[in-house]
Amino acid sequence: MSKFIFGPVNSRRLGRSLGIDIVPKKTCNLNCVYCEVGPTTTKGIARDFYVSWEELKPEFYEVLQKKEFDVVTITGMGEPTLNKNLPDIVQGIKELIDKPLVLLTNALLLTVPEVRREVLEFSIISPSLDAVLQEDFERIDRPVIPVTPQTIIDGLAALRKEFSGKIWLEVLLAQGYNHSPEAIAALQEAVKKIQPDKVHLNSVGRPPLTAMKEKFAESVQPLSMEQLEAIQQKLGDCAEIIASKRQTITQKQKIDNLPENILQYLKRRPADQEEIAQGLNVRSQEIGDILTQLCQNNHIQKKIHEQKVVFFTDVG
Ligand code: SF4
């Protein structure tokens, strides 16, 4: 069983993305209301030595023999820059493959010059900036340490000067949390300062496991497409809406050990049958029986959320 590597999954933005988890669940310096991984349990800003390249390498070699993918995405069931082994992992991967390397980060640690130096070898960095107003930031991202959005914006502006790869700023918008006219005006100013290559507007697309566990899931709702389009227009040409753009399965992919792949997928995020099929690039009909079997054997659970049957591995 893969401990650190999952997928490839069909990413809305990246194509076939091989994901590598480099921090344990759920180690983060934020506790976002929309988080799909679940509530933050290991809180704090202190970086530590989590998974090392030596531990990852055997799994990565095995994956290279068996799987096809377009990009490698460093992520985590938490915030990946908290792992002090990040530079070794980046170097190890780059010595073995010549494919784009992507970092998904909440950007808090990009305020630190040393951490910014560690990420310069990535091809694409996708930092999050959900809110520029302090009050919104505290409501949606719920930092577990004292931090201001302005510090994060300064860190991203510094990264822009130092980093020659692409910066795709991701803004996740949730109904009633971070899309007031003042919030969007402040975001416009921040985008001017950061100068990202793209701004990706996202919304709550998957069941927010954190909010579900804390019993306030009903208050974390997506924006409508009309609301997103209005914000996109304000932000200009660099802004794209990535919410709810489901990809079409163009070819049937053979996946060895589909039940295990489904379990690995659900371990990282709750999903309905259609989304699992999209993520794993298999036809939806192929996984219906497997999901039933996994439920019967108590490996996963299911629940109705937003009028969909959603599958999970560990909702209490
Ligand atoms: S969404 Fe990302 S940044 Fe926010 S709590 Fe989850 S892992 Fe941390």
What does it look like?
This protein is an alpha/beta fold and 316 residues long. The chain folds into two domains: 5-245, TIM Barrel, CATH 3.20.20.70; 250-316, Orthogonal Bundle (Arc Repressor Mutant, subunit A). Helices cover 36% and strands 19% of the residues. It contains eleven helices and 13 strands. The strands form three sheets. It has an eight-stranded mixed β-sheet. β1 (5-11) and β2 (15-21) form a beta hairpin. α10 crosses α11. The protein is globular and about 50 Å long. Iron/sulfur cluster binds at residues 28, 30-32, 35, 37, 40, 78-79, 106.
Overall shape: it is globular
Order of helices and strands: EEEEHEHEHEHHEHEHHEHEHHEE
CATH architecture of the largest domain: Alpha-Beta Barrel
Count structural domains.
2
Distance between the termini: 24 Å
Task: List the topology elements.
Blueprint: E1 5-11, E2 15-21, E3 27-28, E4 42-43, H1 53-66, E5 71-75, H2 86-96, E6 101-105, H3 113-118, E7 124-127, H4 134-140, H5 149-162, E8 166-173, H6 181-194, E9 198-203, H7 209-213, H8 225-235, E10 239-241, H9 258-268, E11 271-272, H10 273-280, H11 284-296, E12 301-305, E13 308-312
Parallel strand pairs: 2-5, 3-4, 5-6, 6-7, 7-8, 8-9, 9-10
Antiparallel strand pairs: 1-2, 11-13, 12-13
Helix pairs in contact: 1-2, 10-11
Bound molecules: iron/sulfur cluster (SF4).
